[in-house]
Amino acid sequence: MYSAEYMLWNGKAFQELELADSSSYTMELAERLLDHYMVRSGTTYEFVYSVLDADRRKVLFFMKEVDL
User: Fold this and answer.
1) 49 and 32 in contact (C-beta within 8 Å)?
2) Structural domain of residue 26, as residue ranges?
3) What predicted TM-score, i.e. pTM, was given to this entire model?
4) pLDDT tens across 4-19, in order?
5) pLDDT one-digit tens code per residue, 22-53
6) What CA–CA distance (Å, rounded) separates 14 from 4?
7) What is the number of domains present in the chain?
8) Which residues contact residue 14 at a Cβ distance below 8 angstroms, ignoring those fewer than 6 apart?
9) Which of these, 26, 3, 10, 2, lies nearest to 63 by C-alpha position?
10) Which residues does 58 contact at the CB level (< 8 Å), separation at least 6?
């Protein structure tokens, strides 16, 4: 199984964002790749880029906070 790693844009660089309920199921990760948006605790994030790191068995999501 693959797990997710989230990187949040802070205006200057990406920093790792720790999420308590990060997904490790392949189907959930696929849904995130297709959705382009994620809402957590009332904050909306847009996925701007994603990378599959097969060596570490991770999907890296690069995202930024947005107001919709």
Assistant:
1) no
2) 3-66
3) 0.83
4) 999 999 999 999 998 7
5) 656 778 888 888 888 999 889 999 999 999 99
6) 15
7) 1
8) 7, 8, 62
9) 10
10) 2, 3, 4, 5, 52
